[in-house]
Amino acid sequence: MIATNSQRGVGLCATIAALLLITSGAARAACIDLPSQGEGVVAAIQDARSLRLDDGREIRLAGVEAEAAHRGETIAALSLRALGRRITLHGADDAPDRYGRQPAFVFVEGEARSLQDELLEAGQLLVGVGIAATDCRAELLAAEAAARDARRGLWAVDAALKNAENVDDVLSRVGRFSVIEGRILSVREAGGTIFLNFGRRWTRDFAVTISRRILGSFEAAGISPKSLENKRIRVRGWVERRSGPQIAVRDVGQIEVPGAHWRP
């Protein structure tokens, strides 16, 4: 689909907003400015997030997650953009994941934007976790926001962004990567874990958990979990079922405060 001028405007505004909201300090590398990790020609599309190069290497698209219901559409979009094309790889390191795939930000020859960026803006993927470079993460979040605002791809239905108050809907996502939004009613600590509670029934309602061991990353971003009380946030991660549905935050980048001047 060719973007209209209006859609391009939405994307540009979202990009500018995201870049203005990142924490101040020394300039950080965007995705294309991460170290080069080689190149190759795409010989096959393995799945919605993985490519195989002509030299046998398997590449995992870093920083993104796929939605199972859109797997076929995402594979088709990835094939259209990358199959048979020469690509360059960028990333903090080239250590393989547990499946032997090399995680990387992928740039098709002649393109200034990463495959991740293009597929996020088309509404085919979700921004994942573990993106260390702040500017790179902001770039990807801006692309996702453009798709969400324009209701493209997986964002075409309201249910794509889960409501933290709808416990049954959140429970349907157990074991799946999800983006959930809602207002934090209380912040409590128990046994070295901080609970961001989205309901008053602690044994049933949705909650986000943060280990005290990672509080340093929140402090570095200029935020404390307690200050999030009564704020509306957006959290991303894998939904687990404990007493009720939960997402464990292991990276400050999993939390966004929509409309605020803080973004990790």
Please give a handful of descriptors for the protein shown.
264 residues; 6 helices; alpha+beta; disordered N terminus
Order of helix and strand elements from N to C terminus: HEEEEHEEHEHEHEEEEHEEE
> Which consecutive residue ranges, at least 5 long each, have pLDDT under 50?
1-29
Whole-angstrom Rg: 18 Å
Shape descriptor reads: globular
- In DSSP terms (H or I, runs of 4 or more residues), the helix count works out at 6
| Proportion of residues in helical segments | 10-25%
What's the end-to-end separation, in Å?
A: 32 Å
Strand portion, in percent? 25-35%
Question: What report would you give on this structure?
Answer:
This protein is 24% helix and 29% strand. The strands form 3 sheets. Strands 8, 9, 10, 11, 12, 13, 14 and 15 form an 8-stranded mixed beta sheet that branches. Mean pLDDT is 87; it is low at 1-29. It has helices spanning 5-21, 71-82, 115-121, 134-150, 167-171, 215-220; strands at 36-47, 50-53, 58-61, 64-65, 86-90, 102-108, 126-127, 162-163, 177-183, 186-190, 193-197, 207-211, 232-241, 245-249, 255-256. A hairpin with a 2-residue loop joins β10 (186-190) and β11 (193-197). The chain has 6 helices and 15 strands.
Q: Secondary-structure blueprint of this entry?
A:
Blueprint: H1 5-21, E1 36-47, E2 50-53, E3 58-61, E4 64-65, H2 71-82, E5 86-90, E6 102-108, H3 115-121, E7 126-127, H4 134-150, E8 162-163, H5 167-171, E9 177-183, E10 186-190, E11 193-197, E12 207-211, H6 215-220, E13 232-241, E14 245-249, E15 255-256
Parallel strand pairs: 3-6, 8-9, 12-14
Antiparallel strand pairs: 1-2, 1-5, 2-3, 4-7, 5-6, 9-13, 10-11, 11-12, 13-14, 13-15
Helix pairs in contact: 1-4, 3-4
